[in-house]
Inverse folding.
């Protein structure tokens, strides 16, 4: 079945540092890929998405590129802020998995802490 | 504001008690799902629904029931609570037919079973 593997955390950075959170996936066909963010005490919010190979999703200074050749969707930000401290989840949906396009398959999440 | 509303936000149950977690959305989304979030496990799908009157099991359905009598509501019932059901529960929804549309999540229900 489909699966998502993301970088183990926690990740601790200083403000204005460069961020990369690695995400790789296993899936048949052409899944859609997502990054969700969960701020402390809140639900998940969609951060960005990419729906086909070589697409780049971007939002709030975060970017991720859908790389089918390496089955990856790494999250990057050039200069993190304290307000970026949160848990980040990589996820996919896959209508090629026997038509089961309802399901989001999540990675385990990466806790990011940004210090002033 | 439009979105997914979950109640209650917090709940403590004794082993063996039953309860219903409520979920309502006002976006006319056909697809609705329940996930549980446990440390180091990510989010796992409990049950889902693709429309009123249609529900099915996800990865971890044991101990939970759902029903979908209206498009708006998708309650999750714990039949006989167990400590293993201590978790944070999230309800999510999205329109049917568009896998490129990300799910909208509720703010969660933190459940403790003692």
């Amino acid at each position: 079945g489909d699966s998502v593997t993301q970088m183990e955390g926690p990740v601790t950075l200083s403000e204005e540092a460069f961020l990369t959170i690695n995400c790789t996936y296993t899936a048949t066909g052409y899944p859609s890929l997502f990054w969700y963010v969960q701020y402390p005490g809140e639900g998940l919010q969609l951060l960005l998405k990419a729906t086909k190979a070589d697409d780049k999703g971007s939002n709030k200074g975060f970017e991720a590129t859908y790389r089918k050749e390496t089955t990856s969707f790494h999250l990057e930000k050039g200069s993190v802020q304290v307000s970026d401290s949160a848990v980040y989840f990589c996820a996919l949906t896959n209508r090629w998995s026997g038509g089961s396009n309802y399901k989001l398959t999540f990675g385990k999440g990466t806790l990011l802490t940004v210090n002033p | 504001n439009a979105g997914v509303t979950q109640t209650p936000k917090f709940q403590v149950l004794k082993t063996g008690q039953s309860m219903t977690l409520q979920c309502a959305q006002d976006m006319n989304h056909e697809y609705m799902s329940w996930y549980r979030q446990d440390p180091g496990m990510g989010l796992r799908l409990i049950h889902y629904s693709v429309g009123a009157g249609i529900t099915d099991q996800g990865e971890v359905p044991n101990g939970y029931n759902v029903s979908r009598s209206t498009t708006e509501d998708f309650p999750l019932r714990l039949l006989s609570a167990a400590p293993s059901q201590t978790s944070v529960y999230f309800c999510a929804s999205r329109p049917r037919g568009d896998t490129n549309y990300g799910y909208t999540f509720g703010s969660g229900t933190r459940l403790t079973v003692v």
